[in-house]
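Predict structure. Chain length: 305.
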Amino acid sequence: MSPDGAEGTPSPLPWQRITVGAPGVEFEARPPGGDVLDVPDTECDGWSTAGLTVRLASVRGAHHRYYGKPRQDAARAVPHAPTGAVVFAVADGVSSATRAERGAGEACRAALERILLQLAWSPDALDLHDVARHAAERLRRLARGRLDPAEPSTAEVAGRYATTLVTGLVRPHPDGPVVELCRIGDSGAWLLDSRRGAYWPVFPTKTGSDALLVSNEVTALPSVPVALEQATLRLAPDQVLVVGTDGFGDPLGDGDGQVGALFARQLAAPPSPLWLAHVLDFARETFDDDRTLLAIWRRSPAPPR
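Prediction complete.
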């Protein structure tokens, strides 16, 4: 199958890595070292509720594959059946943290648990600041069991588990699904116009006019900014919510290059989870970070029989 999903003559070596521009050096990945038990090289997921379709994938970057390090990205999505909402979290463990992969995974789990609990308390309310504080506290609690001090400092927790986090939900609405999300750190979120192939950043990006501000003031959990970056928006019929770590966002840039065109084609309709992981693992010279991508589409109701 070709990179854009068209059928053709079967390749003798199917599913070879997609190349975008100049490829990086090819090599066989080394296994992650240490006591990493729940961080596979690649993972993916995909399912639909009555009103929404979810796909996510996370792949280990070339740098970590070469040096035998674990993937430090994480992503999770779960449905909330009573409201029909999809709750999600995407995290990118900070490379300087000694157990960044554990911090990313724990932050995602904590965020989802807190949002689901809030929805159980009050289905129409969402306190994302509370969600961020809960995720930060989970990292502190994790550190208490691993570090000598009874109450480790924020710097000590960050030194072990620092991570970015984008989390929130998409809930059905008669006028179109409503997205509520927040961000800590430099992971990103975009609205992809699947008709025009254009990407609209939900938060400031590294390539925008405020790039200096973003790159100089990145905060990661367990720190929670007083002015938490938050956004509320509605998902139009031709739009896809895309959330990704900078392993995806950096090669995407403004979305008007080869990577943007590739994913605009691939996300025009929900691909299979395995195919999304395959495409996300594209080869491009100098872009060797872990990559994680979560996408959510409006789902049209089934036509009456």
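Summary: The helical segments are 62-67, 100-121, 128-144, 154-161, 211-216, 246-252, 258-266, 273-280.
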